Amino acid sequence: MAKQPNFDAAKRQLDAALNRLDTADTQPDPLPAWDEPQRPAWVAVPEAPAPAPLPVQASEALTRLLIGAVVLGLDGLGAQAGRWERAAGLERGIPTPNQAGLDIPVRAPGDPRFRHGLIGWVFETEQELRPQGNPLQWLRGVAGHFSGSVFSAVLDGLPRFVPNMQRAESGEQDTARWVARGQLEEQRSRAFASAAIDDMLNQAIPYLASQRGVQQAVSALVRSPAMDDAIVVLARREGVRQAVAELVRSPVMEDAVTTLVRSPAMEDAVTYLVGTKAMDEAISTLAHSPALVELVHTQSSSIADAVVEEVRERAVSADIFAERLARRLLRRPPRAKLPPEAHGLFVSRSRQR
Amino acid sequence: MQQDQAKPLPPGVTRVARISPIYARYAGFVSRVLAMLVDLLIIGAVLIAGGIAIDFFVRTSGLTQLLRLLSNGRGWALPVSAFFVSTSFELIMTLSFSYLYFAFFYLFGGATLGKYLFGLRVVSADGRRLTSTQAALRVLGYAPSALALYFGFFAVLVDDKRRGWHDRIARTVVVHSWKAQPDEEFLRREIAQLN
Fold first, then answer.
1. Nearest by CB to A149, which of B24, B55, B93?
2. Disulfide engineering: B114 pairs with which of A89, B35, B167, B180, CB 3.0-4.6 Å?
3. Number of H helices, E strands in chain B
4. Looking at residue A342, what is its pLDDT?
5. Predicted complex: ipTM over 0.90
6. A 160-199 residues with CB below 8 A of B?
7. Which of B40, B46, B60 to mutate to test the interface with A (most CBs of A within 10 A)?
8. Model-wide pTM > 0.90
């Protein structure tokens, strides 16, 4: 038995290992009687790098922002509606005369499952419609998702001759999955939209305050005689006082006012306003000024008209260029002049059909 | 004009108000293609929105469960695959809606939304408004224009009146309504007549 020493050595190692298992909690490990050179007990393992954060999906963020904004808006509307009802003296739960006569119970508020299902469905649809892979396959998938799935769902309800034909996922499972996801995404969207709106406002107010056009508009507005009357009327309203107090306390407004005060165009206006103590009210009134709203509306309309006319002009130029190119390719003589004009877009009533 | 002058006026009417003929240039290929792209975008958006609504309705209304219940044990079946039915449904819906969209706007107003954006209008070759037959023929005429490798549309580039095959079929022309101007000669004659 030439291998007997190896067998004995292996047996001793096994015994030592079993002993170490028994005393592992209380004693340090004794060195085993290895016949071979010992390997180090611990090997330095390079620290694994932290996993890179997943890239932000713009479409998912946009969906979350939209859903969150709608949810926050509905929350705000609900809170405001309660105050309006109390101000109007309305009471809830009072049955209408028809309901009282027919003994129809007043229904409880709606089931949130529908809202959650809708939210979950929106997010699931957004996930399925992300562009990826071959554009043609993606377009085909989009069309199939919206129109083909309708028939798939209907056909799923019909029995078929082919027993192995795979059935679509049932509507109940879809709905349960949407509701579960909607519950989660509603909370996420609300938090996301709240953070996004706060951040956008914090950036928008200093930006607007630094614009020269806004500074000049504020300067002209506060100098107008009608502003004094408006400020007096507004200052008497409790809501305006609360809004102004809240605005004044916010750090963003502090930055905006600082920027305005330091601008050259505002120096005269600030000097004028120092004695009136109405600067804060003027800022809050600016957004509701009918003149300013009308000015913005008029400017927007004229810009849109100019853009449309420019697009049409460029299209007409492209028409002529395309015709020249086509005639050159077809070796036809260039058109000497534009085609004869169509005679009569509008005709007299007697010539109408 | 001579016929109008010879025709006696109705009793109690001393002057006939009429809208003068208006000259307008025929619209070219690029303007019409851009307008068509806008129309196709609108049609696509409407079809997708309708698909979303129907999809959500079918999945959440219990219609699937109802059909399954009604068909249980009755041996309903379809002789073709679900893919064929689904694709056919998509094609029929797309073509039907597109036909209604174009025919409706051509008949009532003479311009689709895309053509309105680019200041175009479809009129009869003699300047009158389209009849219902012309509107229908013009939309149906898109089929031969497109099936012949779109040569029917490229014909706008070389035709004297910038007409495509569908325009020739329906006897229509497309003009720029945003650059239309009254017929000066006509106005001169009308003013002379009033004086």
1. B55
2. B35
3. 10, 4
4. 56
5. no
6. 160-161, 165, 170-172, 174-175
7. B60
8. no
